[in-house]
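Weekly modeling sync, notes
Attendees: S.R. (lead), two postdocs, one rotation student

Agenda item 3: backlog of single-chain predictions. S.R. asked that every request posted to the team notebook include the full sequence so nobody has to chase files. The rotation student volunteered to paste the first one in as an example of the format we agreed on. Action items at the bottom.

Example entry:
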Amino acid sequence: MIDRVLDGIAWLCMLVAGLALVIVVVAFGWLVYGRYVLNDTPTWVEQLSLLLISYITFLGAAVGIRRNTHLSIDFVRESLPFVPREIMRYLSDLFIVVFGACMAWQGYALFLDNTDRLIPMIDVAEAWRVLPLGICGALMVLFAGSNIVTRIAHGGQERE
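Predicted structure, as returned to the notebook:
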């Protein structure tokens, strides 16, 4: 049940990131059309794209934790006997939990510090650009913590 909820959260993150990517592509299409056809370059495209890229990047990174798809060099770990290999897996997830907690905490602080500062050209609070940092950190804690709990519950077996 919990796995399905977490997979649903990961799916929702990928949906939001995918929609943001579509918006970025359309915005850059408008930029090219405006610049070369209308001879009137839309100046807001760059700032909107930077905003959306932060959502795409951070949400995608959190989903990578859930799906265990991040780039890793695990041949050393996998060549070890069972006990040291499992210790390394737990340590890896624990480091991700700690790092994610720091990201969530500092992302939240950064969000609060930037609520009154506006992004030029699009007049949106700068806080919206740093919000994905905190969201990604919280999701990393949730997903890596879930990996630890699942591994403990299944006697050291990885989630498929």
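Discussion: group reviewed the output briefly. Residues 2-36 form the longest helix (35 residues).
Action items: rotation student to repeat for the remaining queue; S.R. to check formatting next week.
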